[in-house]
């Protein structure tokens, strides 16, 4: 950390690449973002996607060199969806073109050609999320935190006893693909009744439509609001089922890991406090009481910046 000045963090998602150049802070405070960049992901083109990742880093790097006195880059962190093993993309449902790519090596090589020789870290984006929230956000000050990102899909990351837990080959935290009730909808992974295929934003909408819901072009927020207002019986039933399945998933995490805090991210985490109250009530029915008592189930604090800051934190942690 001594002498470290700036870091670059990138969040590579299924549709876009978000990047920041941030001034690393000392004493644990949040890095200050000095410049942002956004480029497109091309899920079916390896060359274009990798090209845009390299361009995003190079652009932020040049910005720093041109605008900051005595600029020095301390490292680059990249968060991406999917399952990574030692920097190699093993499984990437959102960006199929990257499957099988040794992303860390490929990027390092292309960046070197542009004269950028900083250390480079590549990590699953859910791990980046929980790292950022643990260091600077809602889970700050807690030693054991579980991040659950509920967007189009559901991802998860584990910080246990102050350290990221990766498991045997880097795949720990795939909470979205835990079976909650096999008599449920088909998941993107091909199996049935996973946490994701019950409770992700996309699947809440799909279940609503399949159950005969009449609102069209709608999202989880509208379905939740209609359920709360009692003006749509289908929305009401779909949300009750969602809380129940969500509660079962959360209770499993609580009983298995005994965390202090579960931090939610992704689009569904933006639902109002009543949503949190309902999933906590459901989790309380299924969790072991002594482990459930005192556990916090809360919304993230860093919002859209959690991904890029978490990626940047990889460079800080080495
Ligand atoms: Zn699944």
Protein described:
The chain has two domains: 6-128 and 305-317, Nucleotidyltransferase, domain 5 (2-Layer Sandwich), CATH 3.30.420.40; 141-299, ATPase, nucleotide binding domain (Nucleotidyltransferase, domain 5). It is 40% helix and 21% strand. It contains ten helices and twelve strands. It has helices spanning 46-67, 103-113, 125-136, 195-199, 201-210, 220-229, 233-257, 273-286, 289-292, 305-317, and strands spanning 6-12, 16-23, 32-40, 73-80, 83-85, 88-91, 120-124, 145-150, 154-160, 163-164, 261-265, 296-299. A hairpin with an 8-residue loop joins strand 2 and strand 3. Helix 1 packs across helix 2 (103-113) and helix 7 packs across helix 8. It is globular, with a radius of gyration of 20 Å. The site of zinc ion has 6 residues, from loops. Residues 177, 187, 189, 191, 194, 196 line the site of zinc ion.
């Amino acid at each position: 950390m001594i002498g470290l000045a700036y870091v670059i963090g990138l969040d590579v998602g299924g549709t876009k690449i978000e990047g920041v150049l941030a001034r690393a802070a000392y004493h644990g405070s949040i890095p200050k973002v000095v410049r942002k960049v956004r480029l497109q992901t091309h899920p079916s083109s390896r060359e274009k996607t990798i090209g845009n990742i390299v361009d995003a880093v190079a652009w932020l790097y040049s910005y720093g060199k041109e605008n900051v006195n005595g600029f020095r880059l301390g490292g680059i962190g990249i968060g991406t969806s999917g399952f990574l093993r030692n920097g190699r993309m093993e499984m990437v449902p959102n960006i199929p073109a990257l499957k099988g790519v040794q992303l860390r090596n490929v990027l390092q090589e292309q960046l070197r050609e542009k004269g950028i020789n900083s250390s480079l870290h590549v990590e699953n984006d859910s791990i980046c999320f929980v790292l950022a929230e643990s260091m600077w956000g809602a889970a700050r000050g807690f030693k054991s935190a579980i991040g659950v990102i509920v967007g189009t899909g559901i991802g998860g990351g584990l910080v246990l006893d102050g350290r990221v837990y990766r498991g045997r080959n880097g795949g720990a935290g795939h909470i979205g693909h835990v079976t909650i009730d096999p008599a449920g909808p088909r998941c993107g992974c091909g199996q049935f009744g996973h946490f994701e295929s019950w409770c992700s934003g996309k699947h809440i909408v799909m279940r609503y439509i399949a159950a005969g819901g009449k609102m069209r072009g709608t999202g989880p927020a509208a379905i939740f609001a209609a359920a709360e207002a009692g003006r749509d019986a289908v929305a009401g039933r779909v949300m009750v089922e969602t809380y129940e399945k969500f509660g079962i998933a959360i209770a499993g995490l609580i009983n298995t890991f005994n965390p202090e805090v579960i931090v939610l991210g992704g689009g569904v985490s933006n639902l109002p406090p009543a949503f949190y109250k309902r999933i906590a009530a459901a989790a309380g029915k299924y969790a072991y009481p002594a482990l459930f008592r005192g556990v916090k189930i809360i919304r993230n604090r860093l919002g859209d910046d959690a991904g890029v800051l978490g990626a940047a934190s990889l460079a800080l942690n080495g």
